[in-house]
Amino acid sequence: xxxHIQKLLMCRVKPxxxxxxxxxxxxxxxxxxxxxxxxxxxxxxxxxxxxxxxQYVIDAPAAAARCxxxxxxx
Length: 74
Hints:
By secondary structure, the protein is an alpha+beta fold. The protein has helices spanning 2-10, 34-44, and strands spanning 17-20, 55-58, 67-68.
């Protein structure tokens, strides 16, 4: 993920979201658990520039909007 994000920055694309989408039919092969998403975010922080760290957002079931998630472990 770090290498991918750094390549995006080299193309002048700022990674905005790491998006944990709502459960929908047919998306199981694309999904990671929330725990895995938090692990990815933890591994990015401190190992690349803060500008390159996207915001981790969870689209909770039945929520009216996306919820920013801030992992408590850094």
